[in-house]
């Protein structure tokens, strides 16, 4: 991702406003759809001068982590006999990560996934795994959009508005 | 023959006879001369000798006789005429004097003899007189007499108590009190003459000779102890009199004079006082003996009571220990069981076991408490607690039993009832539980309703009993709890006995009437200690029963004093905005979570170190870290064990870092587990910035106190 600093060329104010409004709308829609929850806002609040890329870093971490976990789960489910305990542990991890970042949908899927693991429902697990995979991809995509918007705003000389 | 004027002796000069005669004459003369000398000597010695001239006469006679014999000495040999002449003259004289003396003696000797007789006579007379005098004295004494008659206990007789001479008169001799003469004497305060023939005067059997003299009697008031008031002169309100009788000597012509009677009266008064003093002294000595006896008995009783108390305490101590040991096993093993993998039903069962066994442990404590309650050495543990939670707890505990009996339990907490209160939570719960338990126990059907509200002052005045008027103030209030049941009711007559220890109520015999009967007694004591009152009303058998109690509780001042800062209810007054430099150690095996928490803390200014496992945590933790945040959702890592380890590491120091658990679960079990292992706080995910800020600031304020509270 291109680096961005606070200062840049000074675009006209209305462009900044427009960008900001777009950003806010986009973020609201994400909340509205349930992709993100309040936890994400909390993370955003933690971003400051000492920690300017905090949200991005955490998001990156999440994606790396979730990819790894999903791959593990897929591998575990392909083995026979299936080690449901291992899958459950991974799902638990994913649940924790997603709740930390505020990825609500992913988190909810993980809860369902866990119950399937407890009942050792193989089909259920497979379905859930697929859903989780999809959901993570969606989240990644949306967050990338969001961060790009943030960069644009900052690049235009504005500041990223925080959701209350 | 020559004519010499010599005279020749008449006799022939027989040599031997002459010699004897010569000698005899010599001695006679000697004797005759010495007798007058002796006489003179002894008469001079004696003072009185009336017959001096007789002595002279006799002296002369003797001297002349002596002279004669002396001169005779010369006539034995041839002697001159002169000597013969002298001899003749001497003889003549001697004859003359002798004849006179003889004549005189005839008169004198009878006189002398009569003196002797007189002397003898006088001696006899004196002896006789002495005898007579002795007789008269005895007579006198037998005649004069003084006696004191005291009334007997029955008051119907007078008993002869004291006489002048004890040995002669029988003490114990009684006369009836209602004789006219005695009445006469008793009714007057003067000394009265009485007849000598009256029974009181006739002390000895009369001997014929003695005509008794005049007798005087006077009453002597017997003053009782009660007559002596502190500041008053003794009142003569007594009816008891003694009789003092004075008898003049018999055969005596003496009479009682008026002044003598007055003297007698005065003496009688003195006697009265003396008798009263004696009586008082007797009384006080008796009282003192009684007191000493009582003292000894009391001392013995006290020692026995002390022995009994010691024995009871020993018994209680032993029993408590014996009861506690298995209880401890139950509680310890149940809590261990709780930590293992359990199904939800199993967990519920184990929780109930734990709660019941905790309750039982409390009961065992309270048996000991009861003895301490009675000794007066019991003290409540005052702390802030959640009042609503207490009621909910009771409800939870009683619900299983109630549902088995199909009883409906309703709990009604007034809206103005404070959530937190200051008091002894354990004992309050015990009281509520006991009352509600009784309600459940004695109801076979229907329902139990529990209402709790804050007692207002005017309502309190109407409450029974009227003498209990508690006054709520700014920092305490009165909680009133009413438990109504639709059970078997109580006979109103039995109600007072309910709160007596061990008193079993026969009319309440149900199948479940087991129990020692201690419950209500303990409740009453606790309630009283909490400055309250408990009472039970019932309209009769079968009409249900209402138990009500009022206790005083404090109002907690700061919300910060709540036991466990689990969910900060809005920001408190002292929120540290900046935790700069605060060293925090974060343990989370989830990378994202780790990053999120780290970011949070970094934002708050903390100096954050992260670890991903329990072992790393134990390695990394040091005294510099003020707070350790542990994510306890991670399976495979026993965060509780880690907490215990940290406690062990830092058991000696006071610089143990504060332990905070981050958990995603909201159930109480997690909270309790955290408390058990000694966590200082619990944060529930999702963690917001404000949440973290509040928790941290509260923790840092209260510090390790929380852990000691959390250890309950």
UniProtKB/TrEMBL annotation, chain A:
Positions carrying Phosphohistidine: 92
Pfam families: Hpt (PF01627)
One example of a Gene Ontology biological process annotation: phosphorelay signal transduction system
Domain note: Histidine-containing phosphotransfer domain (HPt) contains an active histidine that mediates the phosphotransfer.
Residues covered by the HPt domain: 51-146
Cross-referenced InterPro entries: AHP1-5/YPD1, HPT_dom_sf, Sig_transdc_His_kin_Hpt_dom
UniProt-listed SUPFAM superfamilies: Histidine-containing phosphotransfer domain, HPT domain
Keyword Phosphoprotein part of the UniProt annotation: yes
UniProt superkingdom: Eukaryota
Official protein name in the record: Histidine-containing phosphotransfer protein
Cellular component terms (Gene Ontology): cytoplasm; cytosol; nucleus
Location within or outside the cell: Cytoplasm, Cytosol; Nucleus
GO molecular function: histidine phosphotransfer kinase activity; protein histidine kinase binding
Automatic annotation (TrEMBL), chain B:
This protein's record includes keyword S-adenosyl-L-methionine: no
GO cellular component, one term: endoplasmic reticulum membrane
InterPro entries in UniProt: CheY-like_superfamily, ETR, ETR1_N, GAF, GAF-like_dom_sf, HATPase_C_sf, HATPase_dom, His_kinase_dom
Domain of life of the source: Eukaryota
One GO biological process term: negative regulation of ethylene-activated signaling pathway
Domain Histidine kinase: 318-557
Domain annotation Response regulatory: ranges: 583-700
Molecular function GO labels: ATP binding; ethylene binding; ethylene receptor activity; identical protein binding; metal ion binding; phosphorelay sensor kinase activity
One Pfam family in the UniProt entry: ETR1_N
Residues recorded as bearing 4-aspartylphosphate in the entry: 631
Catalytic activity: ATP + protein L-histidine = ADP + protein N-phospho-L-histidine
Top-rank EC class of the record's enzyme: transferase
The EC number(s) this enzyme carries: 2.7.13.3
PANTHER family tied to this protein: ETHYLENE RECEPTOR 1, TWO-COMPONENT SENSOR HISTIDINE KINASE
Name of the protein: histidine kinase
